[in-house]
Amino acid sequence: MPDFTPTPADKFTFGLWTVGNTGRDPFGESTRNALTAPYIVQKLAELGAYGVNLHDNDLVPIDATPSERDRIVTEFKQALSDHGLVVPMATTNLFTDPAFKDGAFTSADARVRAFALQKTMHSMDLGAELGAKTYVFWGGREGTEVDASGKLLDALQWYREGLNYLAEYSEHQGYGYRFALEPKPNEPRGDIFLPTVGSALGFIHTLDRPELFGVNPEFAHETMAGLNFVHAVAQAIDAGKLYHIDLNDQKMSRFDQDLRFGAENLKSAFFLVKLLEDSGYDGPRHFDAHALRTEDEAGVWAFARGCMRTYLMLREKARQWSEDAEIQAALAAYRVEDEELAQLTAFSQENAQALKNRTFDRQALGRRGPGLEQLDQLTVELLLGLRGNP
Ligand code: GLT
Ligand code: MN
Ligand code: MN
User: Fold this and answer.
1) pLDDT in tens, 161-192
2) Are residues 71 and 124 in the same domain?
3) Same structural domain for residues 267 and 302?
4) Ligand 2 center to residue 29 CA distance, Å?
5) Contact 67, 75 (CB under 8 A)
6) What digits encode the pLDDT tens for the residues 97-131?
7) Are residues 62 and 171 in the same domain?
8) Residue 218's domain spans which residues?
9) Cα–Cα distance between 301 and 382 in angstroms, integer?
10) Cβ–ligand 1 contact at 136 (below 6 Å)
């Protein structure tokens, strides 16, 4: 039986805000005490994580003085080096403070937009100081409840100008960040701009420096919208734009639950892990989730351990899947190749004419059974431990 204990080589990361989540929700107060950042670093290192990510204000309170900031950052860096953890990704909190209640980069108030740029530049400085190379933009407050504001086209232009500005800043400072836009359909706004992975991919190509921007898809966010997360990630990989990923779980069409990875949709989690591993994605596997509100601190570490362990178990299942002779035979039978047609479907005027004249046995094509029921059942049996090594 393989050992599913994570090591830093697995590149598992957590946000300070994830294991640090105290269980507050819109209807109830915290159920757990806050944990300090150095303590989180120590515990994550003990569990075998690779790194820890943060918003500026997860570490430094928004109203800290410069000397308080320096003391906090020094202590945090000490903890990182004591425990061998890295900070691969940083981001800005542009959603908690009431100044951002109607948007940050997309606020109709030019002063708020400028303040959002200022806060993000300071946060990018902090991330760079900690060694982060990926910078995430989750536009939690970038959206609307009512469209009476009439700002939709302006908001997209303001968003674009803000991102262009910050990309210039990063290049000018020599930070070398790669930026990852994180889509979400709603919550906390009624409608959030750039609601899906596809929307973000489209928007990136309207930016001045599209090569600096990719996406940070989150399992829960596509699932909230009723979309297939694995398909969204495949499209991001296909576009060369999977710059980061937020792993968690979610029941469809509900509030953002941020459940433990694999807690709800095990089969999708399997196909996701398989896709990531097969694609050669070598970035961090970031868990953007938190322990259930019911849990105490022991539950938090059980949650963190569980996220990583499930990923590793699914990775092992993916390996078994690609070595299972019956599954591979079913897969091979599913695909039909045809050399003559491969030539005819390479475009030339002659080939096009030949293809137009070609006869197809339409009825036979329609009669063919591709064997997907059997292939899927074999997958289920493998996941349930009934094939190969359990
Ligand atoms: C917030 C959100 C997440 C984002 C984080 C980055 S903050 O917890 O729900 O999905 O990834 O800003
Ligand atoms: Mn989420
Ligand atoms: Mn997220």
Assistant:
1) 999 999 999 999 999 999 999 999 999 999 99
2) yes
3) yes
4) 19
5) no
6) 999 999 999 999 999 999 999 999 999 999 999 99
7) yes
8) 8-322
9) 28
10) yes
